[in-house]
Sequence to fold (660 residues):
Amino acid sequence: MRKKAGILVVLLLAARLRVAALGGEALWIDETFSLWAAGEPLVAGPAAVAANDVHPPLYFILLGFWTRLAGDSELAGRYFSALAGVLSAALVYALGRRLSGARAGLCAALVFAVMGMPVRYARELRMYALLCLLSIAATYAYVRWLERPTRRRAALYAAPAAMLPFTHYYGAFILLFHNIHFALRCLSPRSTRSTRRLLRSVSLRDLRALRGDYWLLIQAGVWGAFVLLWLPALRWQMQLRPAGIHHAAPTDWTTVQYCLEYLLDNSVWVAALAALGVAAACRGSGRVSPLSPALSPTRGERELEARAAAHSPLAPCGRGGQGVRGNIPSFLLLLLWFGAPFIGGLLLNLLSPSLTLRNLIGITPAVALLAGLGMSRLPRAGRWGAAALVLYTALATYPAYYPANPPWREFVREAARQTRPGDVLLYHLGPAPISHPFEYYRRREPAFAVEPISLFDLPGPPSAPGFTEGVRTLAAGAPRVWVVTSYETPLSWYAFTALRRTHHLSHQAHFSNVSVYLFEPPAQPVVAYRLGDCFRLTPVVRSRPPYHPGDAFEAALAWEVLAAPAVDYSVGLHLVNTAFRPGAQADGYPEPHTSTWEAGDAYTTVHQLRLPDDLPPGRYDMHLVVYTWWDNRRLWVWDAGSDMLFGDYILLDTLTVEAR
Fold:
């Protein structure tokens, strides 16, 4: 009765950590992508979206059914992951109880309930909580099948096993761990004779003696379903990303250390308890081995064992305190659960960069089970002390469970409040899915006075004339122009440059990784830039169109020295076409050389570029760069008034070159 009350308390604690203020944080990019994929027509729609992503489709399909029942708000969508997280804690208890007894199961459930990684991703609208749940469910079903390999238990194992690779590709490593463990059971000392007989002559009788016929059928069905239903889409995903995902961790010792610390919850107490669990499993004690799958065989199980071959690899081993040798296959269950996905992920990362910490969430139950086993082997006072230390460490890092997402919701509300009829709102938040948070909250904000326009909808690449003309046309006559961006790229640089010719930057605000800029028509436009920490520069174009091959482009540069430069900088005028390829350039030192300048000085220099006689007619951009010639390192260009980064060049003008 006390253990039932204990697991109820643990599950309530797990639920509290996973659902507290679940809808408080705004959704971030990946979460809104999940809702977008789930909102497509059921099954076929999410599968088509996933085929162009980096994940398999099952989570998006299940989320589609969930959101049609519960809604697609932040709270409703995240509850799907929170529910999976609480069920995971319950299954950890059930598996720990089956492996090592009710006390060890309760301790393991407590550790899992407060571990940072499971809590973190049970509060996120992504597939990682479901991956963890399926990892535990498949392993629990596998252990039950080892106890009694019946058709019913085979089907109960096949269901979560088949869902694993369809939820996340790293779920395949959980199946790899099951297969390695099964092979080691077959090669245990008690089954050597049967294994050799199988290797000499593979027959159905030998397979049945090893109880491997069901296993082979299960694996053939699981992998066959994946190959038939998803292999073409997987090949397409690999073609889209031949170099892997861009944010994958490198395969080096630093990554290994970081992953181990993260999986052990950055807690010395969890690591110590897990080590104690390993020692207890190696030592073995009592009537049964601590990790033997067949903990307390029933009468039917004993009868099945009696009918099985004398050297069956699946017969319970390690009984009667036989020590490590007889206990190896069972002891390896949790170590393989930890080691096979971890090492497999590192090896896969060498071939195709794909390793991120959250991909390893399916390993965390093994850590909790080992720590629970170690805690259960302590005396009562030690168990209570260890539980208190684990709880204290977890709650001390409580804020880390809930990292702050970018405040998209607050930003959209502020933008809706500030905009007025007649304003122009341009946003550059990247293509889908990067722009999904803005779109998600914009649809839920009825007070928007203007229709936002994506810079991606303007014609041509950012260096194309149509893009610059599109920005100018939209801004013409507008009382105010808002630009919303999440990062600086050539697209935003070209938009800012086009606007600054007719408007001035009057206001800016920053919301985490989102920035808002307000441009208003000034009485006299002034364009000033800051180059590194050395110069404030105001360029003035002296030449005027039309331009023809052989003409000279001339610009005057007004310099203000902010800090005395230690080296001589070169100034370059670079003419580039719409494909960003150079057409001509003129480079040289300003006079006097910059190494002689002192802070507070002011200089005006004039620079010319003669257009080549054979320059084809067309549209060109004139870039101004300041750099050191020996290493070609350019100074970064910032807005002088707002410290907004423009890039490593200044767009002086867009030239239309006509034939003579």
